[in-house]
Amino acid sequence: MVRVPGGTFLMGGDDPDGRPEDGEGPVREVRLEPFLIDPACVTNAQFATFVKETGYVTEAERIGWSFVFAQFATGGVMDASVPGAPWWAGVEGAAWRSPEGPGSSVGDRQNHPVVHVSWNDATAYAAWAGKRLPTEAEWEMAARGGLSRQRYPWGDELAPKGRQRCNIWQGRFPTAPSKGTMPVKSFQPNGYGLYNVSGNVWEWTADWWSTSFAGSADDPTGPADGTAKVIRGGSYLCHDSYCNRYRVAARTSNTPDSSTGHTGFRCAALR
Ligand SMILES: [Cu+2]
To answer: Is the Cβ–Cβ distance between 99 and 115 less than 8 Å?
Structure first.
C-alpha cells in the first residue's frame, strides 16, 4: 500500500462541465489524518484468493445476473434495461469469474480489476484483507496525487503531449469497439503512486451518497445513512460526449447490492 501524508486539501470541483446533480462542488477545504491506500484496484487474482480461502459467493452470483456492456455480452441477455443507458444489458450468468456472461472467463485477465462486485462484496473482501474501503475524501485526496485543483490526477490536460493517460472510451460512443478493462497498473501512476484512478473501472468508496456536505471537514465520512454508495473515478465506458466523470472531482453512486462490469474497488487502511 502507499502512504498518503494527510493534511488539508481542496476537495470537490467547480468545473462547468460537471453536472449540478452530481454535487461535485463547492470546493471545500478538508483535513485528513495520514492513511494507507492500495496503489491499484483489487485484481481478479487477488479476489480469487479471497474466494478460495473463504468460499465467499458474490451478490451477482447469488442473484444470478449482473449488468454487462451490451456489446460484450456472450449470451443470457435478459429483458432488463437501464433507462437512458441502453448500452447496458442485464446478463444471466454474468459475475466476477464470467464478466461477459456464459462461457466468458478471466483466465487471461488475472491482473485486471475484479468487476461485478457489489459494495457489500467489496466490503467483505476488505475485511478479509484486514483493510477497509476508503472514505470518499480519502479516495479523492489520494487520487489527486498531491496536485491541487487539477482536472485529472496528472494535471489539467487529458492527453499531455498527445499521450493517453487513462483507459476511457476511444472513438465514438457506443459504437466503436471497446477493449474493456486493462491491467490495474496500466499507464503512469499519479504523484502518490496510484494507478488508474481515472478510467478503467469505477471504484466503491465507504460513504453514503449525498450532494450536500454539511458534516465535519475533518476526516469526513459522509452521511450517517442513505440508499446508495459513492463511486469515483469513471470507467472504460466514459467518454466526453456523454459522461466526463473521469475528472478527478467527478462522482456518482450506485446501490450497495448493485454490480456491473465496470465497477471495482481498492482498499485503504489505518486512520
Ligand atoms: Cu463515465
So the answer is: yes
